[in-house]
């Protein structure tokens, strides 16, 4: 019974371990560039701050719509004067008494010193006002608010694009560092195997001691390069984690996809001029500047509005028997020292300034597109050339190794062939890295971010 119990417990432990390992294998998924991008959009602090700016502008836009609506308010006032407000007509009373041949006007006509207003007075009212016409300024303010909202949304997308370009760079830099680490590890293991083999050949008197020294120096160098590659991986991982905005980073794919032939340069340039968000920002600023001209022109026209007031409480106001009043107000500034003329000219210069910036920006973006495209073509050519070199280097390494094993070659030749092959492989993955970074940046700038992310 005791044996069976121990057997059952052992089986349960083994089963649990298998399930844990299986579950880990199922849940462990590689972090794709697309998934990293989605995480960054939700976790990155700069994107969150930019999104709050858009929300703030949305509320300001809603507030501007209220310029068309009436304004209702309550107001109250209570005053304490130094004395009552009176009207002393006793002199006039005496004059009247004289005309009427009254010997004692005070006794007959009384005191003509009247109190018009008590020194303590108060009143409260409900007020309403609404603009009817402001020379087009209200319409212009709403139009400007709409444009500012669109600008904030476009600036938010620009921020996303800027960080997406950084993400592409950091993501592929980590891939580059990981592949370089794998290569350095392969070199270290190869040189270690060769060093051990050289030691055995020396012990058997097949090679001189100097050959083992060459192998040991190469092994030390390979170990140093491997340690440096691991540090590069750690640094690249930290940079990517910080950009995404998370402390947990899943395993990423460590293989690059081969570059492919792209469409012609002029098609990319056309796409850049149509879809680039910097140009859209300039266009919105131009629209905003044109609205500014309309705002300044509106000062030439009168401002018309209606208003009303209802007194719902008063104290010691015997002369104000009315409960409400309503009216129409008109204000028309005829001359203000030529301020309007100069402000209109200034706003027109602003339009011209933005148009000049737009023209230069288009030239810059055309050159920028060509620069990225040339980088893509350059790295594509480098990659194709390095693939051929890699084939030759692998054959050379094989031949040098066989020659050393047969006693017709040296350890230095084997190490040299190994390092040459590694150098070519490193250049090849660096070409892939530079290709993907340039291609990714180009695709983001022409508004094809999703298309690029889905390719990876």
UniProtKB/TrEMBL annotation:
Top-level taxon in the UniProt lineage? Bacteria
Q: Which UniProt keywords apply?
A: Cell outer membrane, Membrane, Transmembrane, Transmembrane beta strand, Transport
**Matching Gene3D superfamilies:** Outer membrane efflux proteins (OEP) (1.20.1600.10)
Q: Which SUPFAM superfamilies match?
A: Outer membrane efflux proteins (OEP)
State its location(s): Cell outer membrane
Q: Where is this protein chiefly located?
A: membrane
Q: Which InterPro entries match?
A: OMP_efflux, TolC-like
Family stated for the protein in its record? Belongs to the outer membrane factor (OMF) (TC 1.B.17) family.
Q: What is this protein called?
A: TolC family protein
Species whose genome carries this gene: Aureibaculum flavum
Name the lineage: Bacteria, Pseudomonadati, Bacteroidota, Flavobacteriia, Flavobacteriales
């Amino acid at each position: 019974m005791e044996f069976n119990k121990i057997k059952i417990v052992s089986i349960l432990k083994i089963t649990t371990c298998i399930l844990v390992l299986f579950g880990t294998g199922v849940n462990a998924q590689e972090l794709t560039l697309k998934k990293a991008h989605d995480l960054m959009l939700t976790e990155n602090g700069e994107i969150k701050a930019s999104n709050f700016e858009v929300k703030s502008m949305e509320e300001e836009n809603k507030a501007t719509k209220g310029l068309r609506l009436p304004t209702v308010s309550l107001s109250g006032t209570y005053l304490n004067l130094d004395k009552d407000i009176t009207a002393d007509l006793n002199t006039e009373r005496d004059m009247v008494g004289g005309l009427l041949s009254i010997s004692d006007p005070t006794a007959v006509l009384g005191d003509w010193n009247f109190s018009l207003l008590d020194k303590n007075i108060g009143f409260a009212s409900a007020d309403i006002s609404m603009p009817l016409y402001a020379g087009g300024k209200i319409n212009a303010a709403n139009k400007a608010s709409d444009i500012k909202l669109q600008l904030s949304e476009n600036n938010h997308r620009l921020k996303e694009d800027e960080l997406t370009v950084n993400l592409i760079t950091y993501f592929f830099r980590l891939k580059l560092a990981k592949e370089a680490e794998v290569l350095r590890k392969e070199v270290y293991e190869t040189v270690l195997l060769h060093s051990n083999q050289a030691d055995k050949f020396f012990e058997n008197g097949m090679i001189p001691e100097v050959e083992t020294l060459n192998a040991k120096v190469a092994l030390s160098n390979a170990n140093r390069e491997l340690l440096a590659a691991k540090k590069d991986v750690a640094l690249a991982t930290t940079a990517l984690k910080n950009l995404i905005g998370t402390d947990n980073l899943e395993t990423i794919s460590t293989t690059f996809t081969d570059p492919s032939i792209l469409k012609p340069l002029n098609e990319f340039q056309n796409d850049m001029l149509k879809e680039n968000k910097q140009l859209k920002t300039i266009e919105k600023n131009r629209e905003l500047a044109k609205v500014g001209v309309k705002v300044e022109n509106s000062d030439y026209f009168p401002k018309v509005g209606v208003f009303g007031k209802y007194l719902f409480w008063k104290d010691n106001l015997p002369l104000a028997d009315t409960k409400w009043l309503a009216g129409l107000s008109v204000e028309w500034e005829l001359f203000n020292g030529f301020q309007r003329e100069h402000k209109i000219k200034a706003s027109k210069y602003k339009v011209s300034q933005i148009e000049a910036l737009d023209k230069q920006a288009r030239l810059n973006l055309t050159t920028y597109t060509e620069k990225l495209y040339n980088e893509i073509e350059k790295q594509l050519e480098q990659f194709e050339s390095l693939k051929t070199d890699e084939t030759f280097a692998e054959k050379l390494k094989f031949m040098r190794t066989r020659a050393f094993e047969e006693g017709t070659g040296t350890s230095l030749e084997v190490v040299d062939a190994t390092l040459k092959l590694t150098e070519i492989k490193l250049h090849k993955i660096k070409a892939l890295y530079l290709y993907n970074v340039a291609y990714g940046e180009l695709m983001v700038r022409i508004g094809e971010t999703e298309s690029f992310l889905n390719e990876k």
